[in-house]
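Task card 7
Instruction: Convert sequence to structure tokens.
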Amino acid sequence: MSSDEQVYLGILAASIPVGFVFRYLSPAVKQAAALLLGLSVTIATCQIHTLHSLVTVIGTWIIIKSSWRLAPALSLSWTFLYLLFFRLVSWFGLPQPTPFANAVQLLLTLKMVSLANEVQTFHLEKKKEISSFAKSPVIGGLSQEPSLYDTLSYSYCYIGIMTGPFFRFQTYTDWLKQPNPQALPGWVPCLQRLKLVPIYAATFIAVNSVLPLSYVRTDDFLDRNFFYRLFYMIAVFFVFRMRFFAAWCGAEAGCIIAGLGCYPEKALSKPGGGPTVNYSPDPAEEEKYDFKTIQNIDCYNTDFCVKVRHGMRYWNMTVQWWLHHYIYPNAPFKSYTLRAGWTMFISAYWHGLHAGYYLSFLTIPLCIAAESAMEASVRVKLGPRGQSIFDWVHWFLKMRAYDYMCMGFVLLKATDTINYWTSIYFIIHVIAVCCIIVGRALKGGKKDGRKVDKEEKGEKIENVKDKTGEKTD
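Output:
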């Protein structure tokens, strides 16, 4: 475990007992204390590079105050252009930011874009209320435009400041204004979320020590036989998953113990977005709560869902919500595959400028096209047993596809990624292209194609309903 990972671990571990204390603070004290603690952690770990995040926050606030109508587009442009400057600061003779500063900047970018969209929605709905004399149907909208202090408090709230999860400004204000936070569930769901963390951490350390990533870059590795090289990507992705399973479950536990993202089950909350339906307490019934709003990882479904497109839903879930609501709908394409490609390109840019990110993320649309082609031409023609066998093969290939793409994500450099993929003969690219060719050759008829497209259309409908606050079950 590196020194940076030890710092992250220390911050996550400290956030749990600290979070318990925050349940006993008044809203004003809670807001100030969360800001002070988060800013202290940022300054201690990022030092002078804290100025990058501060400039981003103030710049976004100026944009919002200047033009709330254009704020979503301008804030996205501003924060993403600043990310470019942030990553190229050494070209301007400035010191290279620390990994901690990078983590803060990434999450802050998501928050600022989301805040601009929330403020725009607030003003638009306020205008509608005035003109129609009716209450806005939007679920969980802001009650007022945030001040500079509110914006700074949200930006530097200590919860998830480096590890996530992402949460909206509305989720943050709901947390501050909880009427009786001590009565909300805390220790039980927190321990439930932490129970597998020791296993994730132990397996991460054990497998990483035996099969380190650095070995892939050596000439000795390339001299190994094909099956060993192919197996190695499975081990690397396993280590990668265990690392993030442990980190994100720990980060969620920090949110849970503080009470952030706690809503009644009937609110039908979504990771990142929060409640999707209006809800009100029923005095006659005992209220049940969940923390789905801050759920960032579904460990089981990440591993055992069948499709590539579904695998993305269960990984880094709050960021996926952000991409689905702020990037995917505005993609300059109509095709689902091309929209997914655009979204993956933006996601790669958000992660960094390393070529490995782009090689990995831009392989996802190819895999989605391949699985869609095979579903439309093969699966729809099979009986129940045949479809079951198809799904098991599909799952196996889905996992190998993510193993394959993970190598680009962790190797980072284009040469290292291409060298590894060459050593296994670009096997996933070849399989994906073959599936597309076979799928088109077999076709499957227009009706079958429409059946497969229902899921994609359903996703679009769900996206529209999320924006209008309608129930989507």
